What does this fold into?
Amino acid sequence: MIGEDDDEWGPYFSGVHSLDNWKGPYRPGVTACIPVHLPRLRGGEMDRALHSVRNQTRPVDAISIAVDTTHAGAAATRNEALAGVTTEWTAFLDSDDQWRSNHVEALLTAAQETGADLIYPWFTIVPGGQDPWPEREGQPFDEKRIREVENYIPVTVLVRTKSIKRSGGFIPKGPPENPCDDHGAWISLLNEGAKFHHLNERTWYWWWWSGNTNGRGDVW
It folds into this structure.
């Protein structure tokens, strides 16, 4: 875990934890939670992501980072980073994506105004590409669609830390060719009674690249 008072955000590693290791209470604030695929650390994408975290109008209170050095996959690495979070809120960011400068402020304000446990905004795909769910932008949360049809909520959300840890974190769910770890997390949260809210703002950049696994929990 890297706090906001640290001069240097490194090394990019958070030790191994279990999701229930923190007995609380959770302190006020927001932690940026970043799982890292090793090639992205070496290729400069992580520096780009961290720059967007630094540039927030509402600074995060801490950062928890886990680097996958053992080919554990996205879900396990995301859970490792999540396990180090001790603030009330967790803001997820993949190491090849970027937040706009108002991302944390906008999502936290929406959470406070709605009482929701999970806030999901919309995104801009870069450097180019097509939104896979254009019909969902700006529409109210559709629980039935998430449960029965498809996952249309990428992992770049703000969520109550206690809730997502209690629900088990990220567990790959879906067809064998694409077992999305975030889909399993959302369904587990809903089963725990969590309230979801869509913020109709584009607050982050989704870097869409050739070979992007689009949330597969067993690989990157």
In short: The chain is about 30% helix and 25% strand.
